[in-house]
Amino acid sequence: MSAQTLTLPLGEHEVLAALRTEAHPLTGDRRDYDALLALVGDARIVLLGEASHGTHEFYRERARITRRLLTELGFTAVAIEGDWPDAHRVNRYVRGQGRDRDGEEALRAFARFPTWMWRNADVLDFVGWLRTFNERRHHTARKAGFYGLDLYSLGASMAAVIAYLDEQDPQAAARARARYECLQPYAGEAAGYGQAVLLGVDEPCRRHVIEQLVELRRRAGEYLARDGMAAEDEYFFAEQNAAIVANAEEYYRTMFGDRAGSWNQRDRHMADTLDHLLAHLDRHGGRARVVVWAHNSHVGDARATEMGARGELNIGQLVRERHGRDAVSVGFTTYSGTVTAASDWGAEAERKRVRRALPDSCEALLHATHVPAFLLCPLAAGESGRALHEPRLERAIGVIYRPETERQSHWFGASVARQYDALVHIDSTRAVEPLERTPTWELGEPPETYPSAL
Q1: What is the pLDDT confidence band of residue 228, given thresholds at 50, 70 and 90?
Q2: What pLDDT does 381 receive?
Q3: What is the value of pTM for the model shown?
Q4: How far are the Cα atoms of 24, 142, 251, 292, 414 from residue 389, in angstroms, in the given order?
Q5: Above 90 in pLDDT, residue 193?
Q6: So where are the chain's domains?
Q7: Which residues of 307-326 are buried (b: 16+ CB within 10 A; e: fewer)?
């Protein structure tokens, strides 16, 4: 439905007028996000969302905001909705370490579905910029890092813990191998562990992975006694991997029987990892500040959405509860366009057409402003903020997009002004470009008027 034909309820015309007045148009000018940087101020955490995992403009605008946060406000790290060991390889590259020759090679660690989520042209550009940014900093200045928050890396994290202990303490490495043995059959496909638990596996591995994490933490003093900061970084990487194994075990053990519980386990893990990262970076001197890149469903406060009614929480809620005004959350929305997504879990990436937003959604309202791209900041202020405080539909596309079940699969109720502190709306968007383009992505989805294409 176009803006010209959108029928607005009584009072919505006034809302549109307020939106047009209060919107900060995004024109590509360097000053586009001045209002957002003013809102951030001294906050330690900025959460940058996305309405899909496959939209070019969301990645591009997050990178634009992040570059300003690093260069102008002294932020020191980017933490993504990606796996810890995969991001660690990129972290080493952008900090001038490791053996990777370029950003594309460093991003090859992201080999698990969905590869396009981090192996895409926009992330490659940002990783290259981050490497250059660090190289140009004074040798005494802290280099900006790139970190993962997620817990899907069960096999890689077990291997990382054992590799660390092989260097530090071979006997401890042998104990780790023995403790992780019960999870090794599921290292390649961790969801199989959850299925095994449902089928009555003799003994879940919970006790063993907790024992390993406890031992690693108990012996931290021994492992940190040799090389100062370098040793601390290595230990922190290993400890986080041990925590991932413990939390991933619980996540996969409960994923088929307790959907809300497994979701909460994952987001608690990501929020805890963020807090641990802040504390670790603080020990390097100064007050660390971190930018988070994750889906809207993770960075927007769950209490303002249907998620909260289902008993689900998320990073956005936990960060607000723990850090208060030290955190700023930014949501991203679009009305229509194309998106990179799969039709099923594990399937090939496709370039799909994003259907026009439903009439009773916040996206349809924002579309009706006729402003192609804009920022609302601060979101709760003014007449538009009061209007967006009222519950409306909001779209969420993850790595799977099923337009044939659009309403059931991708829409939920939310109070946008309570969910985020600021909102970026880009009316028409296009699919992010994977570094590996499959034939199904190149072909794309036929237009609605196919085969006439009129």
Answers
A1: low
A2: 79
A3: 0.93
A4: 19, 40, 33, 24, 9
A5: no
A6: 12-150+259-443, 151-258
A7: beeeebbbbbbbbbeebeee
CA distance 290 to 25: 26
Domain boundaries 12-150+259-443, corresponding CATH code: 3.40.1660.10
- Give residue-wise pLDDT tens across range 272-299: 999 999 999 998 778 999 999 999 999 9
- Closest by Cα among 151, 345, 117 to 252: 151
Give yes or no for residue 10 having a pLDDT over 50: no
